[in-house]
Amino acid sequence: MSEDRRSQLAAGLSGARERVAAAEAVAGRTAGETTLLVVTKFFPAVDVEHLLDLGVREIGESREPEAGRKLAQVRADRPDVDFAADMIGRVQRKKARSVARWARRVHSVDSIELVDALGGAVERCVADGEREEPLGVLLQMSLDGDPERGGLVEADLAAAADRVDEYAQSLRLDGLMVIAPLGIEPEQAMAQAAAIRERFVAARPEAREFSAGMSGDLEHAIAHGSTCVRVGTAIMGPRPILSP
Ligand SMILES: *Cc1c(COP(=O)(O)O)cnc(C)c1O
Fold this sequence. Notes:
Elements: H1 2-26, E1 35-39, H2 45-53, E2 58-61, H3 66-77, E3 84-87, H4 96-102, E4 105-109, H5 112-127, E5 135-141, H6 154-165, E6 171-178, H7 186-203, E7 209-211, H8 218-223, E8 228-231, H9 233-236
Parallel strand pairs: 1-2, 1-8, 2-3, 3-4, 4-5, 5-6, 6-7
Helix pairs in contact: 2-3, 4-5, 5-6
The structure holds pyridoxal-5'-phosphate.
Protein name: Alanine racemase N-terminal domain-containing protein
Family: Belongs to the pyridoxal phosphate-binding protein YggS/PROSC family.
GO molecular function: pyridoxal phosphate binding
């Protein structure tokens, strides 16, 4: 059973790696410059451990407190493996402290209030010896202003970036993230996101990370400059349906 799961994950992983490599080649980009973040949300710790055994060192999680508990389990089971976990899902401010305990980076920072919550949370984690490094921040952009999907419209990105700077000891502005809205062609969504990113980076040359692309649209994202694709289903299989 477990061997079956491991070979399933190995196949999913090599398929995703091939897609990323092919998309980089088509886009004329340097091979290997796009990070493949394996999204393990809803899947158990044992799956993360299989992935580590298969060489994965960067994973994405989206739900707290499940993520924190799962990662504690994985770190206990694989004490010698160094890996990074990123928060890619929406963060409630009251969960900022627990996310700050485990996340290398938060991809989904979508308000000034959340910047404040994370900045304060990291300061407290550092004071309590729970982390040493600053937390990487990606500002999530919204292409359609839909509050359901979250994100900041372009006009609000600069103020949020300035707020991140106020936490120079605890936060580091890494770049931008986008989730392509339903109802727009992925190619058009990624082109629009890339244009916003280009204007943003012109003012913020240090914030070059661009987290864009998932199982369904990673080729479009890589064609438009993504530096990190967040891939769940294509590697892990369909997410289990959870009761609410
Ligand atoms: C779940 C999730 C993903 C992965 O989506 P797949 O379609 O399963 O690849 C990527 N980004 C975010 C923000 C997610 O919540």
